[in-house]
Design a protein that fits this description.
Length: 137
């Protein structure tokens, strides 16, 4: 097995390095905040009462992923959030979270809101899986 590279001195091929690895810093002393991942699906009466669309409670039938991150003693202005297709990178002065997402997401679509009373950042992202355009059309 031989990999052809443009530069003979390179150790890694770009395909071998997972997305988001450039953010991973094991020497960063900031704490990793607590977080919770849940999935959300859009259902109507035809789903709940009649089961006409064939949706079930599994993650395969969900359209969105919701990530709730606990950020105590943090102001909204201190939060830096970067979302790529498979990685969520959150940084505050006290916390750092590099989260590899279980499914690819549409990094251009999404929303985040900071619930200041609960000190929770809630990030909702649209999943971008193969064949979703067929399953959810």
């Amino acid at each position: 097995f031989q990999v052809k590279s443009e530069n003979k001195k390179t150790i890694w091929n770009t395909e071998e390095v997972p997305e988001g690895s450039e953010f991973d810093d094991t020497w960063d002393p900031r704490e990793k905040p607590e977080y919770e991942i849940s999935f959300k699906q859009h259902v109507g009466t035809e789903d709940v009462f009649f089961g006409m669309t064939g949706k079930d409670p599994s993650t395969a039938c969900c359209e969105d992923i919701v990530i709730k991150i606990k950020l105590p003693e943090t102001k909204y202005s201190d939060i830096t959030l970067d979302i790529q297709d498979k990685v969520l990178d959150l940084r505050t002065p006290k916390n750092k979270l590099l989260l590899h997402l279980p499914y690819p997401v549409n990094s251009k679509e999404g929303r985040a809101r900071f619930l200041s009373e609960e000190e929770i950042l809630e990030v909702t992202l649209r999943l971008s899986r193969k064949l979703d355009f067929i399953n959810f059309s």
